[in-house]
Amino acid sequence: MLRRCAILTSATTLALLGCKSDIPQLNHNNAAGSTLSISRSFINTDGPVEGVAYACINAPTAWGGPTGAFVKGTLSSVSFTSTPGENSGRSTYMQDTLPRDGYSWYCHDEPERDYQLGDQGEITWQFAGQNDSALIFTIVSGSKENPGLTRFAAQQVNAAGTNAPFYWEPLNLSGAGPEIGDITAGPNAFNDGLAFYNDDDGHFYLRAADGTLTSAEPELLSSAPLIRNDRLVGLGFTENGLQAQVSTDGQAWQLSEVIDTGDGGLNLHENPVTGDYVASLGGNLYTSADALAWSNSTDTGLSFVQHYAVLPDGTQIAAGDGQVSSEVAEGNWSPVLAMPEGSTANVFQLQTAGNAVYLLREETVDGPPPTTHLYRSEDGQAWTELLPERQPGYNLALFAEGERILMLVKDGPYVSNDGGINWAPLSVLPEAFEDQIFEWYPVLAGQQDGLYFLSLSVRIGDSFGSSVELFLASEDLETFHLLAGKPNIEGDFGQRASASSAGIVTVGVDSQGTHMHKLVKAGESGSTPSATGSSGGGGGASTVGLWLFALILLGRRRPLR
């Protein structure tokens, strides 16, 4: 099996890395008047197999086509370089399959060779130096019989002289970070820096204003941790019962009073209206202003509170195990959106946007197959189903700016200009790209300091399509810009993005160390997107150069034969 692998690019080198999450990335290197090179890589993780059969690139017709193409790599530790042959027939086929105004397809057949386990290579297309931007598509496939979109990738090339509206600014780091990362909270603002929680080792990690990274070890395992600007809070069981632990500096820890002596599923939430911490144990809720002194329990009527939301008027809504409950008066809750007897449900998301709350739930009535349903309520009691004729899927992203609300579901983005009453489809990507999307999967939505950030995965084509992870930014929910994906890291360990008063920040951990980046509007920072900092066991920084505005790409793990 040949899998596309993570690549890090600098001005002079291209390093092939591991394949745990099978994330390929296009890379480009360009300077004014020089050769523009666009590369893709592959590595054989399960051999022996035949090599890449063909590769195609879709670039502006005005560029005149590649001035050269070559494949290089290793065969049983022996290096090779070859020039693949052009295939005009395949180029014509791709032009008919995926036409784009002003763009042309250029395809090459790879010389036949057998790859053994661990053999790797990359294919590079070269163009004369360009000074304009372009959305580049590429396909690399190992199946001579299937010239479909088996390995689709996209890259926004911002060539020399082009000003990008947004970019990921690397944050300098020094000191020891986690060896492996499953980031479950943050990175959020903490004191004058940032903090995130790594579930793999049970530590908070703190980045000071000067970039120094230190770890904070709580006294007990922090289930459902929360990070606020003035404190770190975790929730867990001690020999006395359920307690919270709190630190205001990441060094000293204080245990709260015992919240409850029972057991059950626990969670930690925030009430955005009151600013209180909200702990849940089973179906009971407990509130606290400082996470140290807690109120008596309030019974929601649920067996487990997995999701929690609050309307602008303070009305609380909770959901878990497919059931939903709403607060009708202080301390008094009642079930809503009840399912018919004998049916089952699973709540995927509960989120407030504007003056309403939205709930996404899978429902099974009268046996399989299950269907997904999206509901909206302004009071927690009366609910209206949105898009009842469609399947909204299993993920939901919502933005609100006054009466304008953007919603992303399985079949694409929708916009409402009346607070969520009426909805219409919305285009957020270039038409030539959007027309090829079969399904949309929102991953993360955040807004901070006048910026809206959306991370999503889209499936190109139907049964044979590849998944592509995209990052978008907007200032007005009208115009969206394709962003660079976070500079790719080995194995994609623990990559996470979060929005807080520190801005929209990403964190990722790989064998090279810890990497953090901040979403920046062009002209608002003195830094440039030409280098990134990392922190490893020894604490040294490593430089990763001209990645600019690449899109991180997620490809299915398919054999290339």
UniProtKB/TrEMBL annotation:
It comes from the Bacteria. This is DUF6242 domain-containing protein. InterPro entries: DUF6242_C, Sialidase_sf. Residues 228-434 form the DUF6242 domain. PROSITE patterns: PROKAR_LIPOPROTEIN.
